[in-house]
Amino acid sequence: MKIGLETESYHLLFQNGLMDIFGFIRKTAELGLDGVMINVIAFPGDRYLHPEWGALGGAEDEHLDKVRKEIEKYGLYAEIDTRGTEPAHLTKVIEVAHKIGADIIRTYCCFGKYEAEKLKRAPEDIKKIVPLLKKYRIKLAVENHEEEIADEIIKIIKEVNSPWVGAHCDIGNSMMAWEEPIEAIKKLAPYAFTTHFKDHIIIEDDGEYKVCGVPVGKGNIDLEEAFKILVNDSTLTRINIEMCFPYVSCFKREKGTGGVHEVGKGAFRVEEPPFDIYEVKPSDYYYPPEKPKEKMIKAQKNGVEESVRYVLGLRDKYCR
Fold first, then answer.
1. Which residues, listed in sequence order, are joined to residue 81 by a DSSP beta bridge?
2. b/e map 2-28, b = 16+ CB within 10 Å
3. Under DSSP, is residue 42 helix (H, G, I), strand (E, B) or coil?
4. Nearest to residue 139, comparing CAs of 78, 86, 184, 72?
5. Rounded to an integer, what distance in angstroms lies between the CA atom of residue 227 and that of residue 231?
């Protein structure tokens, strides 16, 4: 099993001009990993990221050629993370993926809130770009982002009915839809083309429960069971670490949507926030204020190294 790293794992470094795509590729190789997953989504607060192409840094042919060569230099595989199902957008992303040698593209349907209409429209949108996926031999993986349960993703895949379209199994995102992670992984594994391997806890923030990312191995998801399912019940040859720390997210669906009705047990066990709430509020983790920023950047760097050690340990245990 090959292990890769998603650019979001270093989002604070990208946001603050401390890392670019070339530095990320080199760092991934230094960590002893096998591939890069490049997020091409940018948000208004991402000061140092390309406004259209996020951590990739642009889509000019010369730039993409340099990125491809850097990836090839270290013998890494490449995947791309985008969002949306609009055929025109996905066409552009497929062309970029082809130019850098990426063979899998992750996308998702809903942005920040659940919208049933977007899920309903997704299969017909995706069908329109299947010929281009086939032409370039690139697979599209639809993610259980934070708004969808596993059954909704599987429904899209079955409606598209193409060997070029499958699932992206994010092992933690199901929690935002009140779905037990292991149950979601069991459902998605047979359809999975790629993954985000992460860890979560539940915290309380201003009287509201939220899902909080932590270094892999430091949270409450049953990661050993998750890894075993991905190894034994899928055709995956890669698992990608996406360390979402520091990060928090609100619940995006009604309680019980995915079968879980309350916090308090298992993956939904409530823990203390990872940073002093008087220093930084959980709602500010993704874009922290200046005072604690240096401390949080250091914590993110350390968190990536912890996560890599943990996942490589799982690989040694279950794949050899």
1. 39, 106
2. ebbbbbbbbbbbbbeeebbbeebbebb
3. coil
4. 78
5. 6
- Helix 223-232, helix 290-318: angle, nearest 10: 50
Q: Is this structure's pTM higher than 0.90?
A: yes
| Angular region, 217: left φ>0, alpha ψ -120 to 50, beta rest | left
Q: Which of 66, 143, 54 is nearest to 107 (CA)?
A: 143
For 151-191, how does the pLDDT look when each residue is reduced to its tens digit (9 = 90+)?
999 999 999 999 999 999 999 999 999 999 999 999 999 99
Greatest CA span in the chain, whole angstroms?
Answer: 54
> What tokens were used for 177?
């839809």
Report residue 108's pLDDT band, with 50, 70 and 90 as the boundaries: very high
Q: Is 159 helix (H, G, I), strand (E, B) or coil?
A: helix
Neighbours of 316 (CB within 10 A): 9
- The DSSP secondary-structure symbol of 18 reads S
How far apart, in whole angstroms, are the C-alpha atoms of residue 40 and residue 286? Answer: 17
User: Partners of 210 in the beta sheet?
Assistant: 203
- The Cα 172–Cα 255 span in angstroms is 16
User: How many beta carbons lie within 10 A of that of residue 44, not counting itself?
Assistant: 7
Residue 25 tokens read as: 């590729």
The pLDDT assigned to 179 comes to: 98
Q: Is the pLDDT of residue 6 over 80?
A: yes
CA separation for the pair 45, 245 (Å, rounded): 17
Instruction: Provide the CA 283 distance to its chain's centre, in angstroms.
Output: 19
Q: What are the distances in angstroms from CA 113 to CA 118, 133, 147, 177?
A: 11, 28, 6, 10
